[in-house]
Input
Amino acid sequence: MEFAASDPSILARRLEIVAALRSIVPDGVVADESGLAAFDGDALTAYRQKALVCVLPRTKDEVCAVLAYAAEQSVPIVPRGAGTSLSGGALPRGDAILLSLTRMNRIVEIDYDNRCMVAEPGVTNLAITRAVQARGFYYAPDPSSQIACTVGGNVAENSGGIHCLKYGLTTNNLLGVEIALMGGERVRLGGKSLAQGGFDLLGVVAGSEGLLGVVVEATLRILPKPPVTRTLLAAFRDVPAAGQCVADIIAAGIVPSALEFMDRRCIQAVEEYCAPGYPRDAEGVLIVELDGIAAEVSDAVARVAAIARAAGASELREAADESERTRLWAGRKAAFPAMGRLAPDMLCMDGTIPRRALPQVLARMAAMAMDYDLGFCNVFHAGDGNLHPLIIFDVMKPGELERAETFGAEILKLCVAVGGVLTGEHGVGVEKRDLMPTMFSQTDLAQQQRLKCAFDAAGLFNPGKVFPTLSACVEQGHMHVKQGRIPFPNLPRL
Amino acid sequence: MTDITANSEADVVDAVRAAREWKSPLNIVGARTKRSFGRAAASWGTVLDLSGLSGIVAYEPEELILTVRPGTTVAEIEALLAAKNQQLGFDPADWGPLLGAPANAGTIGGAVAANVAGSAAVRYGRVRDHLLGFHAVNGLAEAYKAGGRVVKNVTGFDLPKLMCGSFGTLGPLTEITLRVFPEAPLSATLAVTGVNAQTGLTLLRRIWSSPLEATGLAYVAAESVAAIRIDGAREPLAEKLALARDLLAGHDVFEIDGGDALFRELGSGAPFLDTALGVWRIAVPQASAAQVAARIAAPLWYADWAGGMLWIGMNDTDLHEIARKAGGHATLVRASEETRRRIDVFPPEPPERAALTRAVKAAFDPLGLFNPGRMYEGI
Output
């Protein structure tokens, strides 16, 4: 991955910029080397870069003041939540202000009558559920980083999780946001009502990866907790049989709350790591979770069991109690650390494919792993076709990072080739930025960039993310010029 | 100018290219069932008729994915899906008759453009929650695509959301990919009779806040009835109905026949068919519904989506402000042209929001060629 060089005219003004931010947020500016080291990247650990300066506002007004200053001075902004992005969405830039929202962490309102909650962007995902669980409610999107990741980051990345097969991604559980625009204006999109008027701008802000605005408040739907949850494990001696089982469950009209697949490599790694009791001779295991009211779940469990047997499951068992259920899930949730133990570095890919392509894609990936001579395993949100191949490597060994990245890119190209997409829930960020042309034509990408320009004509929000090439905002054939400055004056114009 | 008929994406590109050349706007239509929905503008331009751009591109029942051309009728899609025990998740409502057009004629492109979702949207979401991807032509006469053909996708901006409810003002769609859902094996409807709006809507919210996953939650003021539709296989359905009855204890509860027909009528505004009333839809936070309805005191009204959507029959009153103050917004779905000249059809936007709307419009349609003025002046 190539990064653009920092703008020297901004670097030259660093002290002045730091001082200005201190006047806006006196107790919330990090500008020293060691302090900035704590913010030098996110969960895409292969990349590290120190920010120009990091500012941590506590209020909407402070966010707006920072944005007004940044717009006036043409300094880019990189918004940041907890820094758990797997695609480098919050990777800092040497010439950009890193805007951390973690100190805005108040739950503003819990409104049970309207089944929603209003929260500041720095509230963690899990804190939403914790705040309402005593009353029997929860917040459905549950990315694996939910203990740390924040509401603002979830909106920016349109985060998913294990249960989005039944309950949708963040965008389907988001009623409204207030965003701050470059320049410091604030706009409310949506609210507590189910539909919003005018263009569905809320829909495009969700998943916009910090390129359109900064979420300063979000209104989230909370759901009643299902009274019964049951979990099945089905093991298969060959991958196509497991794939068929998944297809048959979905085609039968059953909507599990989770439907997870792990391949043989993953099974072996997690068995070494925490021994969840998966059959070691299996080529793949499925974990199927069903929730709802008792009779409905019983009915679905019986049907899933029959489908799994018919598909040739070599073993089928149901967690008898909560501790066994936790153990079944422990293996799935340990896939990351279990693989991480085998090598110092790991890449987690995130393509989505049509479910029917699963056997073909897995077979092809195994062949590629041989070519690239790298360890990998596959975990897969099978119900919605979202693959998470984990590639392990050692960044200290010459060429391994590049090989791992090429392997990952080849996997994602394969996903697109079989009718899928580059990312199901992790976002494009910097990680998949240069692959965008494999899925979208230049015309497709230009249309998306025009939307970006509608929100951020000067191109100051999170530059270098999502789009492989930066095109200047053009209005009716003229370049957008704001306050006498052309955007990105340091970029060559060809 | 005479109408332009487009039967292919290339035809649409040609039409837009010509419109650019002549600086002449296009009035994009499908089956023309919603032509009276929108601002009364002097002219939306030359008709660009997409009804011939129709047909199923791909239907993969095992993947729960459907790709169609925009001129395909919703009725044809529903028949295709029903043969595989599947359905459109957003419960497409037929607003044709309400708007003075034939029944069962509307196209999927029109349903997406107007974001028309029926009663079951309370459980499964609106059109915007189901449109996975599309192809379209922008104001530069370029064909482009966005989204994808899988249910889980965050690659690039979620332009499909933006297309839903944009009334063609961002350009003509040429291909539409939707997720589809399995049909419920059975459904049953409970009616709670003799309840006023406050009580009826409170009971609906109680069901809505339970794990019963009701697919219809309506209050019909004229009948003083709250109606609750619940889906499931035989045994689970019986258990759900028993649980619902527990939550409704102390009230008169009857299981009624024809629940699906009732919700179809409510979702399509059928109660207003034989009246001369103007028809508003007002989205409000559920808990405000009874209060808002009382303040409006309309001669005919009902609530869908557990109170989240009020259907109001009323003439000559601007309800935008009352909706805004309640934390919601109003849309004037049916009214005479004369009324639509005086009263905004879509909710007025505050200045900073209106600026974004203008900028987004220009991002797709810089010359203002597509249905100009249909939603807002200059949009």
Summary: The first strand of chain A starts at residue 29 and ends at 30. Residues 107-224 of chain A form a domain with the Uridine Diphospho-n-acetylenolpyruvylglucosamine Reductase; domain 3 fold (CATH 3.30.465.10). Chain A touches chain B through 96 residues (CB under 8 Å).
